C-alpha cells in the first residue's frame, strides 16, 4: 500500500512532508553532490596512478582490464551524478560499479580476523551507498541538474 493511499498523516509528519516538498530539488542536488563526490575523489586518485591500481586487480580476483576501466567509470560517473547528467543511467552504472567494488574489495569474510571488522564496516558502508544511488535512480536529478536544463524528464 503506498503512502499516498494510507490516509492522512499524523500532524507531526505533515511538517516534514512540507519541508521535503519545498526543498526537494535542493536536497536532491545536495544528495547528488554528497554521493558523487566520493566517486570523483577516489576515481581521480586512481586515474593519477592507473598502473598501480591495475596491479591490484589480481588480488581482487578481477581481470586487469577492469583496472583500466573502473577509474574512468568511477570518476566520470561521479561527475555525472553531481552534475545531474543522465542521472538515472549514471546511477545504474554506479550501482554496478559499487556491486563489483564491494564484493571484490570488501569481502570481510575472506580477510584475516584482525581485518574483518574494518572490512565489514567498508562492506556495509558500500551497501548503504547503493541505497543512496538507488534513491537517485528512482527520484531523478531534480530541477537543479543538467538533465532538467536539457529538458529530460525530472521524475
In terms of per-residue confidence, which ranges show pLDDT below 50 for 5 or more consecutive residues?
none
Let me know the number of strands.
0
Estimate the mean pLDDT confidence.
Answer: 92
What is the 3D shape?
A: flat
| Count of runs of 4 or more consecutive helical residues | 6
* Overall radius of gyration: 18 Å
Give a quick rundown of the structure.
With about 160 residues, the chain is mainly α. Helix content is about 75%, strand content about 0%.
Name its key features:
mainly alpha; 6 helices
Commentary on this structure:
The protein is built from six helices and no strands. The chain has helices at residues 11-48, 50-54, 64-83, 87-105, 113-139, 146-149. Helix 4 packs antiparallel against helix 5 (113-139). With 155 residues, the chain is mainly α. 73% of the residues lie in helices and 0% in strands.
SSE layout:
Elements: H1 11-48, H2 50-54, H3 64-83, H4 87-105, H5 113-139, H6 146-149
Helix pairs in contact: 1-3, 1-5, 3-4, 4-5
Amino acid at each position: 500500500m503506498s503512502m499516498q493511499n494510507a490516509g492522512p498523516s499524523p500532524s507531526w509528519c505533515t511538517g516534514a512532508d512540507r519541508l521535503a516538498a519545498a526543498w526537494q530539488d535542493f536536497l536532491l542536488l545536495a544528495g547528488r553532490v554528497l554521493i558523487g563526490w566520493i566517486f570523483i575523489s577516489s576515481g581521480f586518485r586512481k586515474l593519477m596512478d592507473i598502473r598501480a591500481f591495475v596491479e591490484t586487480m589480481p588480488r581482487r580476483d578481477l581481470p586487469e582490464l577492469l583496472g583500466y576501466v573502473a577509474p574512468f567509470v568511477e570518476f566520470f560517473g561521479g561527475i555525472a551524478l553531481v552534475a545531474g547528467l543522465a542521472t538515472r543511467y549514471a546511477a545504474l552504472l554506479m550501482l554496478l560499479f559499487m556491486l563489483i567494488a564491494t564484493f571484490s574489495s570488501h569481502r570481510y569474510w575472506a580477510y584475516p580476523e584482525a581485518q574483518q571488522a574494518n572490512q565489514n564496516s567498508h562492506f556495509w558502508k558500500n551497501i548503504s551507498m547503493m541505497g543512496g544511488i538507488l534513491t537517485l535512480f528512482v527520484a531523478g536529478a531534480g530541477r537543479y541538474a543538467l538533465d532538467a536544463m536539457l529538458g529530460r524528464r525530472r521524475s
